[in-house]
Amino acid sequence: MARLKVEHLTFSFGYKTILEDISFEIHEGEVVSVVGPSGGGKTTLLRLCAGLLDRQEGTIENSFKTQSIAFQDPRLLPWKNVLDNIAFGLKAQGVSKKERIKRAQEIALQFDLEEDDFEKFPKELSGGMSQRVSFARALVTQPELLFLDEPFSALDIGLKRELQNHLIELITKKEITIFFITHDLMEAVRLSDKIFVLEPDPGRIVKTFTLDIPQSKRDDSYVYSETAKLLKDPYIIETFELE
Ligand SMILES: Nc1ncnc2c1ncn2[C@@H]1O[C@H](COP(=O)(O)OP(=O)(O)OP(=O)(O)O)[C@@H](O)[C@H]1O
C-alpha cells in the first residue's frame, strides 16, 4: 500500500526554525489535513512533502506513483487558454492531444466551466473561474496523491461546497489520497480522516484528531457539532490563541 512517511522533519529558513521534529504517515485512501495559524509553517510542510522544497533534516518517503498540487492562488499559465491549462499535466503523461482535450473538456464541464470559456486566457477569468481551472488541472491527471494548499479559500460558499462534494465523491470511491492545509476548521472536519494541529514557532504537530464517520455521511449538523467540539479543545485554543 502506498504511503507518505515523514520522520523527524526539521526545517529552517536562515536562522529561523520553521518546522521542528515533524513525524507522521499518510496511507493510501486517507484524507489528512493540517490546521494552524497563519505563518505557522503549513505551506512549508506541504511544499517539503510534495518535493518542491529541499529537505534539510529528517526523512520523507513517498511511494505514491502520481501526485499533483493545487495552490491557493491558481498559478495558471497566462499564455495558455482554459483547456490547455487544464490539459497541461496530461502532456507530461504522454496522453495524445485529442485525448487531452477530451479529458480537459469533461472535467471543465464537471466544474461548471462553460464551453464559451474554454478558449479564454487567464486574464479574462474571474477569481472563482481561475480556481476551478486550477483545481481541474490538478485532478485531470487522476493523481494518487493530491496536495491542496487552501484551494477553496477564495471561493464563494456555493462553489466551495461544489468542489468539496467532488472531492468527497473521489474519497468515497477510494480513488484518491489527500494531504491538505487549511485555516478553516469546518472544512477540515468536512473532509478529513485525520486533522493535525500545527502549533507555530517552531511548527510542531501538537495534536491529532481522528474522524471516523465516512465523509459522504457527514451532514451539516455533524460538521457544526464536531467543529464546536474542536473549538473547545485546549490545543486548538492555545494554537489559534482563541483566549
Ligand atoms: N522562501 C522563504 N524565505 C524565508 N522565509 C519564508 C519563506 N517562505 C516562508 N517563510 C516564512 O516561514 C514561515 C512559515 O510560512 P508558511 O507559508 O509555511 O506558513 P503557513 O502556516 O502556510 O502560513 P499561511 O497560512 O499564512 O499561508 C513564515 O514566517 C514565513 O514568513
From TrEMBL:
Organism phylogeny: Bacteria, Pseudomonadati, Campylobacterota, Epsilonproteobacteria, Nautiliales
Pfam families assigned: ABC_tran
UniProt cross-references to PROSITE patterns, sorted A to Z: ABC_TRANSPORTER_1, ABC_TRANSPORTER_2
The keyword Oxidoreductase belongs to this UniProt entry's keyword annotation: no
Organism whose genome encodes this protein: Nitratiruptor tergarcus DSM 16512
Keyword annotations: ATP-binding, Nucleotide-binding, Transport
Domain ABC transporter: 4-225
This protein's name: NitT/TauT family transport system ATP-binding protein
PANTHER family, per the entry: ALIPHATIC SULFONATES IMPORT ATP-BINDING PROTEIN SSUB (PTHR42788:SF13), TAURINE IMPORT ATP-BINDING PROTEIN-RELATED (PTHR42788)
MF term (GO), any: ATP binding
Domain of life: Bacteria
InterPro entries: AAA+_ATPase, ABC_transporter-like_ATP-bd, ABC_transporter-like_CS, ABC_transporter_ATP-bind, P-loop_NTPase
